[in-house]
Amino acid sequence: MPKSIITTWLLFLALVGAMMVAACGSSGEPEEVTFDLRIADRAIAGFESGLEVKQDDIVTFNITSDEPTSFHLHGYDHELELAPDVTESFAFTANAAGSFPITVHVGTGSGGEGHHETAVAKDHHELKMGTLLDMTVSVETKLDGDSAVNLKITTEGFTFAPERVNGPHMDGEGHAHVYVDGVKINRIYGPYYHLGGLTPGERSIRITLNANSHEQYARGGQPVEATTTVVIPGEAKEIADHEASASEPTEIDLGRLIVLPR
Q: Among residues 107, 70, 147, 130, which one has the least CA distance to residue 244?
């Protein structure tokens, strides 16, 4: 075979190989993705199919609302309090694949850690932690006065790390969330917690374990959590429907953030 033909073939194969390497490299590198979201009439136009990114992408949300509301990306547990026509932003690394609900809580008022949040059943995803399959949590309660209980939270395979909240995920550490009757009340940073302001009647208390980066821990596809029931003394007050709708936050589903495996 003539030397010129051999040389041509070698150059062609080298070019094809370089193109394949470049293609693989470009598809495998995390990207920076920004979503500019405008919430109007309690919906986001063009959001029906969800927001889609790839695992490890750096994602930025810029969010504006036409009314006071609390924006919540479940699973990653990012929350923002929104004033009308004021853009707020947050950024994070999409390090966990899955489908994560995006909701707003209308009627919450100005925010802060103590604002109440309606719980969503899928507010968790399984973290890839390998050796931490024995993580467990249990909770004991003791009445304290007429409207409060003291909680004792016992864990295995988990360490409270309040100094690293909002930091990167580290296997087996983080904080807890406490819910009363399905409503998130607060974060818990240690094994003991005083839970006050409970109304008379039978109250359901749920404790979840969450990573530093706020994702809820799960094992075998099930959230690591504990639930117990307490009876608060006194006459339970029935709230009329119109009173409840005026005082309780309303949760509205806006869609989902879909994180595809890379």
A: 107
- Dig out the tokens for 32 from the structure: 């920076």
Lookup: tokens for 61: 């949300």
Helix segments in the chain, DSSP class H = 3-28, 241-247
- pLDDT tens for residues 122-159? 333 344 443 455 889 999 999 998 889 999 999 999 99
Enumerate the domain spans of the chain: 32-117+243-260, 130-239
CATH of 32-117+243-260 given 2.60.40.420, 3.40.640.10, 3.90.550.10, 2.60.120.10: 2.60.40.420
CATH code of the domain made up of 130-239: 2.60.40.10
Read out DSSP for 196-220? --PPSEEEEEEEEEEETT-PBPEET
Mean confidence (pLDDT) of the chain: 77
Contact of 216 with 75, CB cutoff 8 Å: yes
pTM of the shown model: 0.49
